[in-house]
Request: fold
Amino acid sequence: MLGAKTVFPVFEFFHSFQGEGEYLGRSAFFIRLFGCPIRCPWCDSAGTWQSDAAAEVKRLSADELADMAAAAKPDCVVITGGEPTIHDLTPLCDALHAKGLRVHLETCGAFPIRGDVDWVTLSPKRQKLPLVENWARAREIKIIVDTPDAIAEWAEKIGEHAASSIWLHPEWSRAEDPEILGKIAEWICAHGAPYRAGWQLHKLFRVR
Ligand code: SF4
Reply:
């Protein structure tokens, strides 16, 4: 039975600031869970699903994670991965809420979200598109712009699905590519809200 003693495979946990999205620059405790079946070619956290990293993964209970997060006194706890929704997050969310912590989730949206989260950042991936129910739960959408045509491609898929912000992030290996940056700027000027230009501030600061 799931509960506070339920154990999760944890690739890493750390206290930093949120480098992206609406909560940019806010104190955040990150819990990066192991495992992802999507396997994007440009994944910047590939260690979370590569089999040679599995031996290093810590097994920590919902209670242990909540204790560590609470000790950090962050503005929010970000559950990320890998793809965290391959796990039933209910006991972890409950343990974090029991400590009075705000729970954020970063997901590709391709699997059901199990657990009571306060904020969903949905970053869709071509390899496995989000479930309709998850588009609806997204408080913000983060598009990774990896090709010049990616924004138009995703705009068509997003269609009527509402989110207060749709962030356009250059894929990190092309973060200084004038063609990609130009396309983002062009799109923002042509379409305005809810589109917003995004960046990964933590990488600029060289922190996790
Ligand atoms: S869904 Fe996320 S964690 Fe999984 S491979 Fe893609 S970028 Fe990496």
About this structure: The chain has one domain: 7-204. The mean pLDDT is 95. The beta strands are 7-17, 27-33, 58-61, 76-80, 103-107, 119-122, 140-145, 165-170, 195-197.
